[in-house]
Amino acid sequence: MDAAFTAEQDEMRRTLREILGKRCGPDEVKAAVRTAAGYDLELWQQLSRRLGLPGLAVAEEYGGVGCAPADLALACEETGRALLPSPLLATAALAVPLVTALGTAAQRAALLPPLATGGLTAALAVPGPALATALALTGDNTPGEWAGGGRAGGVQARAGTAPDGWRLYGEAAQVLDGHSAGLLLVAAHTGGFARSRILLFLVREDAPGLVRTRQTTLDETRPQARVQLRDVPAELLGDPEGDVPGALAATGRTAAAVLASEAVGAAGQALARTVEYVRGREQFGRAIGSFQAVKHRLADLYVQVQAARSAACYAAWDPEQGGLALAQALEALRTTAGEAIQLHGGIGFTWEHDAHLYFKRAAADELLFGPVHRLRAHAADRAGLFGGPPDRGHRPILERVAV
């Protein structure tokens, strides 16, 4: 493993940081999330056309950049620093890998080029608050309770007559970027209870019977929507015999690495802003950053953030470690954001202060993709750390280190 960044990666980081530094300050973030789309449309187009962010991990034959997922994770560390509100995560980290893995040749040719250029955004809709389970981050994602059961709840699918194809009915209550996405990838039950299985379906934003309502969320930079499907026409993604749970799990591992890098970027920026504040804030005639107790707290945060960054870099190289890296990064972000509020003193406790943007991101990400202890428990189960063989040929960390 070569941990050094290439010249192209360094240039991408520099350019992205420069653009976001000018266009994505705290005031711009607060203004963007209150728009109908939930993000700055002009900035999204600039990032898509100039840097090709949504197409980083898309093959060149489909109009993408053709980079590895590690490059997407590297870019997301910079978007995490700025808490960029955008459809990048839902589109590039969740939807694109599923279309690539499961879609037919015609579907890939039709969908991947506009997804890669940012002209089309997408969202993954799974029933209930079960995104982490569907992506196999916190538990086994074989069809079961996370998808609504099969008898009732969730989203149900039935085969229609040509040319209608499939019809969907049901509800997904917490769909990341579901209110603005031009394309929905909907996980639905089909085959009845006895032969129930999960398939993914494509639903366009203008499909009749589709109702999308933006929800009030703790973190406005992670907008969510309630998606209701009332006998909605849909197109099956790929083959009916495709391994949907396997594709979701593989997507989850890559998405976890991307999310870990994003959380590390946010934690690093929260720490940097806190250090800058304590250097200038004076108490008893001296900067509060000169007090030994404050130095110790900041040193502990620095070590935690750097350890999380190392784990995130390793996960970008080996996505099998995505769950553990995500747990460490989310914990680092939560701790750093909490300490940022404390060390900013009385002003830090005001809800309008910028430090709360990082606190809300930390809390919301753990609700969506965690919690941390379940991420670690599932990773331990997969690695066979507490008895039993490792799951899916996964070698325990200690064995790999010994090798």
Question: What are the salient characteristics of this protein?
Answer:
403 residues; alpha+beta; Butyryl-Coa Dehydrogenase, subunit A, domain 1; Butyryl-CoA Dehydrogenase, subunit A, domain 3; 7-stranded mixed β-sheet; 13 helices; disordered C terminus
Overall shape: globular
Structural class: alpha+beta
The biggest beta sheet is recorded as:
7 strands, mixed
CATH homology superfamily name of the largest domain: Butyryl-CoA Dehydrogenase, subunit A, domain 3
- Quaternary organisation: single chain
Radius of gyration: 21 Å
The rounded distance between the terminal residues' Cα atoms is 13 Å
* Element order: H for helix, E for strand: HHHHHHEHEEEEEEHEEHHHHH
Task: Give the mean pLDDT.
Answer: 89
Query: Which consecutive residue ranges, at least 5 long each, have pLDDT under 50?
Result: 393-403
Strand content: 5-15%
The CATH top-level class label of the largest domain: Mainly Alpha
Task: Note down, in words, how this protein is organized.
Helix 5 (88-102) packs antiparallel against helix 8 (244-280) and helix 10 runs antiparallel to helix 12. The protein is globular. Residues 393-403 have low confidence and may be disordered. A hairpin with a 6-residue loop joins strand 2 (155-159) and strand 3. The longest helix has 37 residues, at 244-280. The chain folds into three domains: 7-120, Acyl-CoA dehydrogenase/oxidase, N-terminal domain (Butyryl-Coa Dehydrogenase, subunit A, domain 1, Orthogonal Bundle); 123-245, Beta Barrel (Butyryl-CoA Dehydrogenase, subunit A, domain 2); 251-402, Butyryl-CoA Dehydrogenase, subunit A, domain 3 (Up-down Bundle). The strands form two sheets. Strands 1, 2, 3, 4, 5, 6 and 7 form a seven-stranded mixed sheet that branches. The protein has a two-stranded antiparallel ribbon with strand order 8-9. It has 13 helices and nine strands. It starts with 6 loop residues before the first helix and ends with a helix. With 403 residues, it is an alpha+beta fold.
